[in-house]
Amino acid sequence: MNTTLAPLPENWNRAMAVVAHPDDLEYGAAGAIARWTRSGKSVAYVIATDGEAGIDGRTPAEAAPLRRREQLDAAAVVGVEDVTFLGYRDGVVEYGLDLRRAIAREIRRFRPEVLITATYEPTYGLNGGRIINQADHRAVGVAVLDAARDAGNRWIFPELLDENLPPWDEVGLVYLMGANQPSHTVDVTASLDAGIESLRAHRSYLDGLGRDFDPAAFLQEFTAAAGARIGVQHAVAFQQIRLQGV
């Protein structure tokens, strides 16, 4: 793991976070997003699935509307009103042209300068060990990188031009949550409270875990570890990826 973490640059105005499931952003990144929206930046969420396979005690038909509603509530806590659900089937998201097109469409629509997604690495560290990264996270993460390039090329998915969505090639950086080799951090000491409340908004999902889970304790411990590395109380770490030519 890198020993030196730089402050994540904040000389941008618009960011889009693209993840696989409702609640993916709330395990840390939402605290950073609250910091950014409080400073006047615009952030949009794109959620690939409705998370309908995530609650064992509820059928997908029951879980989907609950999880969409809870994601909307969680986003509102941190100042995000622009939330799009792509409607892919939870648990079996496949990397491919359809997913790339759907994400490129949203990039052209919202016109962000920065993208945020979850790591696409096959495994990641947790409490000193390693666990397998969920398949949807991997598929969406790689698709985000490719869609960032696709969105700027008018000859890739030219059908988007028929939707009055011209190319957008101003995405300069992508930041990965949960990466094994983070490079940048965001001080969330002043915005962690909002991040905690954002995670608490996923009440149905957390209740369905079948075990005790304290969002405040989890996020305080998680962000304290990154904060200790840069001399602040709480922080969130990301890996920065530059798009070619930037």
Care to give the gist of this entry?
With 246 residues, the chain is α/β, with parallel strands linked by helices. It contains 7 helices and 10 strands. It is 36% helix and 22% strand.
Structure characterization notes:
Keywords: Zinc. InterPro entries: GlcNAc_PI_deacetylase-related (IPR003737), LmbE-like_dom_sf (IPR024078). It holds the Pfam family PIG-L. There is one protein chain. The chain is α/β, with parallel strands linked by helices. It has a single domain, classed as 3-Layer(aba) Sandwich (Rossmann fold). About 35% of the residues lie in helices and about 20% in strands. It has helices at about 30-40, 60-75, 95-110, 135-150, 190-200, 205, 215-230; strands spanning about 5, 15-20, 40-50, 80-90, 115-120, 125, 130, 175, 185, 235-240. The protein has an 8-stranded mixed sheet, with helices on both faces. Strand 6 (about 125) and strand 7 (about 130) form a beta hairpin. Helix 1 packs across helix 5 and helix 3 (about 95-110) packs across helix 4. The longest helix is centred in the N-terminal third of the chain and has 18 residues, at about 60-75. The mean pLDDT is about 95.
Task: List strands and helices in order, with pairings.
Layout: E1 6-7, E2 14-19, H1 29-38, E3 42-49, H2 60-77, E4 82-88, H3 97-110, E5 114-118, E6 123-126, E7 129-132, H4 135-150, E8 173-177, E9 184-187, H5 192-200, H6 203-207, H7 215-230, E10 235-242
Parallel strand pairs: 1-9, 2-3, 2-5, 3-4, 5-8
Antiparallel strand pairs: 6-7, 8-10, 9-10
Pfam families: PIG-L
Organism: Rhodococcus aetherivorans
Protein name: GlcNAc-PI de-N-acetylase
